[in-house]
């Protein structure tokens, strides 16, 4: 199945879920047409500019490309506005501009090492969907579906990442690397999704506010 078909399937499914879980203000026809028009413009320009973007970083070494991509992803992780996941969050345009821009730059770096402009277009489009549309859908599902929605999102992310990781790594890597990657992947999943939250909850129980009749510090000028 072509990658673009898979991408369009996920975009359509995500938009239907957003329409189902969203409030009446979020899913009115006027806003829906605006988002569809914006998406078509972005994907059209990405397709037209794909040959240029594909060769834009051709002269840069592969090691530098991977280093820059990792740096941009770190910037995305550090600058993402995580308050957008709260139920009472009021949307502010541009709240994630730095994070979104850095993620697209990382996708552009990685896309420059793909074989054809078509693959470049698909990767950039996938990055747009993942870093621009996915957070909005996650926020809506978390608010409207509660803990059950959060659990479904976690399971979906686990299955999705491992499904696409399998043919890339497990079919081409030597056996020792397969075992190492499998152990590292499962360890990270358990640590991030279970051990880390459990430790935070446990630490809240032993947190104490210490009060006492201490004198306030006074700065003495010499």
What does this structure look like?
The protein is mainly α. The protein has a domain at 3-146. It contains 6 helices and no strands. It is globular, with a radius of gyration of 22 Å. Belongs to the PIGC family. InterPro entries: Plno_GlcNAc_GPI2.
Please provide a brief summary of the model.
Keywords: GPI-anchor biosynthesis, Membrane, Transmembrane, Transmembrane helix. The chain is mainly α and 222 residues long.
Mean pLDDT: 76
Helicity level: over 70%
Alpha-carbon Rg, integer: 22 Å
Ranges where pLDDT stays below 50 over 5 or more residues in a row are none
Query: What is the structural class?
Result: mainly alpha
Strand content: under 5%
From the spread of the alpha carbons, the general shape counts as globular
The tally of beta strands, per DSSP, is 0
The biggest sheet, with number of strands, parallel, antiparallel or mixed sense and barrel status, is: none
Number of helix segments? 6
CA(first)-CA(last) distance: 78 Å
Q: Helix-strand pattern, N to C?
A: HHHHHH
């Amino acid at each position: 199945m072509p990658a673009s078909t898979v991408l369009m399937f996920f975009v359509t499914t995500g938009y239907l879920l957003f329409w189902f879980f969203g409030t009446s203000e979020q899913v009115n026809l006027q806003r829906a047409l605006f988002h569809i028009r914006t998406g078509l413009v972005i994907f059209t320009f990405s397709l037209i500019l794909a040959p240029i973007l594909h060769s834009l970083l051709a002269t840069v070494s592969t090691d530098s490309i991977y280093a820059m991509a990792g740096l941009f992803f770190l910037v995305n992780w550090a600058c993402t506005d995580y308050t957008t996941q709260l139920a009472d969050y009021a949307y502010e345009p541009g709240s994630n501009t730095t994070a979104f821009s850095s993620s697209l730059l990382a996708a552009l770096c990685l896309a420059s090492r793909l074989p054809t402009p078509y693959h470049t277009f698909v990767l950039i489009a996938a990055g747009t969907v993942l870093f621009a549309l996915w957070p909005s859908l996650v926020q809506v599902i978390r608010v409207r579906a509660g803990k059950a929605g959060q659990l479904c999102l976690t399971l979906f992310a686990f299955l999705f990442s491992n499904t696409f990781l399998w043919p890339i790594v497990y079919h081409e890597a030597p056996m020792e690397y397969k075992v190492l990657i499998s152990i590292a992947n499962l360890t990270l999943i358990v640590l991030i999704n279970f051990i880390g939250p459990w430790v935070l909850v446990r630490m809240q129980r032993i947190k104490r506010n210490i009060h006492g009749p201490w004198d306030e510090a006074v700065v003495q000028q010499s």
